[in-house]
Design brief:
alpha/beta; 10 helices; 15 strands; DeoR/GlpR family DNA-binding transcription regulator; DNA-binding
């Protein structure tokens, strides 16, 4: 069966849900100058695909404490993710050994690394491997493990054992959510274990995450901010407490929201 493609307006609605939370049909209809029936059809389509969860009068994330599919995540904040990815790639020189972890932003980093020379990439992310497989100057090691169909990655102890055979120049990781008190958070214990393995076996640890991750709620601790060398983001939230926490950590913060695409 062919994969169903969502419209540009539906992608925008997904981005609003991701960055601002609950969206209401009446407000969306006014925003787009459309009838509520048209907006309701958009929402129904997103919910049928598992990208969102409807309730009376509006739409929200699928369920509390769970992540949406990788395809849906890749549609959210695409511009910001590409900006972040290009900035990360600019800081990775030739002939480096690079761990590329799970997530849609890391997938964009792989795209930005396609023309790098002499890279050795170790990943459990199927999209990363497919993105780089036509780059003859990049040596790709794809880990074994349990394939997760929706996320297009592999998880499990085999991934961790494989990662531990390397000591990378860089580890590039994402996060399911960011929390001022606990740092990197995720929705899955399996993902958190793998991300920690990447961080523990790398010299320079790079976090790539857009500002929407501060509005998400995940229950699995991954790592505190002081375990990260450099954090790349489009912008920081307005919350002063976040800026204070980041200033107190040893992590360098790179904002790249104003860069040209």
């Amino acid at each position: 069966m062919a994969q169903r493609v969502i419209s540009s307006r539906q992608r925008e609605i997904l981005a609003l849900i991701e960055s601002e939370g609950v969206q209401y049909i009446d407000e969306l209809a006014r925003r787009y100058d459309l009838t509520t029936q048209t907006i309701r059809r958009d929402i129904n389509a997103l919910c049928d695909l598992g990208h969102a969860r409807r309730f009376h009068g509006g739409v929200d994330v699928p369920i509390e404490g769970s992540n949406i599919s990788l395809n849906a995540r890749a549609q959210l904040n695409r511009r910001a993710k590409r900006q972040i990815a290009r900035r990360v790639a600019a800081d990775i020189g030739p002939d480096a050994t690079v761990f590329l972890g799970i997530g849609s932003t890391v997938q964009f980093v792989a795209e930005a690394l396609r023309d790098h020379q002499g890279l050795r990439v170790i990943t459990n992310n199927m999209h990363v491997a497919l993105t780089l497989c036509e780059s003859p100057s990049v040596e790709v090691h794809l880990t074994g493990g349990l394939l997760r169909h929706d996320d297009r990655d592999v998880v499990g102890t085999d991934v961790i054992k494989f990662v531990e055979k390397f000591y990378a120049t860089f580890a590039v990781v994402g996060a399911g959510a960011l929390n001022p008190l606990t740092g990197l958070m995720d929705f899955s214990y399996a993902e958190a274990q793998i991300t920690n393995a990447l961080l523990e076996n790398a010299q320079t640890r790079l976090l790539a995450a857009d500002v929407s991750k501060w509005t998400r709620h995940a229950s699995v601790r991954v790592a505190p901010f002081n375990k990260i060398t450099r954090f790349y983001t489009d912008r920081l939230p307005a919350d002063a407490s976040v800026a204070g926490v980041l200033a107190e950590s040893s992590m360098e913060v790179v904002t790249c929201g104003e860069e040209a695409i």
